[in-house]
From TrEMBL:
Domain of life of the organism encoding this protein: Bacteria
Protein's name according to its UniProt entry: Transcriptional regulator
Chain ranges of the Winged helix DNA-binding domain: 13-92
Signal peptide: none
Species per Swiss-Prot/TrEMBL record: Flaviaesturariibacter flavus
Gene3D superfamilies according to UniProt: Winged helix-like DNA-binding domain superfamily/Winged helix DNA-binding domain
Entries under SUPFAM superfamilies matching the protein: Winged helix' DNA-binding domain
A Pfam match: HTH_34
Amino acid sequence: MFKDLDPILHSQLRLAVMSLLIGVKEAEFTFLREKTGATAGNLSVQVQKLKEAGYIEVTKQFKDNYPQTLCRVTPKGVDAFEAYVRALQGYIQK
């Protein structure tokens, strides 16, 4: 039986953001934008959706008088990502 895939993580850009954050635990918005190739506007919307789902935490601060946005994966996000990967593996093994 195939498991349902998490609709939050099933978006290509949101999955890319989560994959990056799983590897580094915390990243600046600009790093995520560069690595994903997304526009700032699109990435901002997708980051907000991940935040609303409780998968990431977003911290806004200033660094050298410039705004800085940091994103960090939450334990709930790690669990959701691992469950998503297991569900995908189930599709591959069937």
